[in-house]
Amino acid sequence: MSSTHQIYCEVEGVLAITKGNEYIFLEENILLLEFAKALNTWGKQSDLDFEYYSMDYEEGPIIYFRHQNLKTCRVGGVWLEGVCYEVQRVELILACNIFIRKILNDLISRGVDIDLLF
User: What is the helix (H) or strand (E) element at residue 86, kind and residue range?
Assistant: First the structure.
């Protein structure tokens, strides 16, 4: 296994997505760096829908963002059993960027060369 692939498998934890004070998504053992990379790729073309499939799970998409109109997206996923949440698109994009920045800053603080990851 390459060291780049290995780090994607090693950076895992709890993924919590909230809307206000309500959890939209709360799951343990999510490959957080893999998710951040998928979000980063989507962020370059955020006018498209987003679907996240993980190398750790066969079922999916684990989480998705589907555009409803220019201002809102629906957030859902296979583990949410058909429940979807409507969120403001601009807030979703901002939250994704903050998440990506936090993951990368944490890796940098641990001495990881992030240039090879994204």
Answer: strand 85-88
Residues 48, 51, 52, 53, CA torsion sign: negative
- What pLDDT band is residue 2 in, cutting at 50, 70 and 90? low
Q: Read out DSSP for 4-59?
A: HHHHHHH-EEEEEEEETTEEEEEEEEEEHHHHHHHHHHHHTTTTS-EEE--TT-SS
How do 85-88 and 72-76 pair as beta strands? antiparallel
User: Model-level pTM greater than 0.85?
Assistant: yes
Neighbours of 103 (CB within 10 A): 21
Instruction: Provide mean pLDDT across the span 79-104.
Output: 92
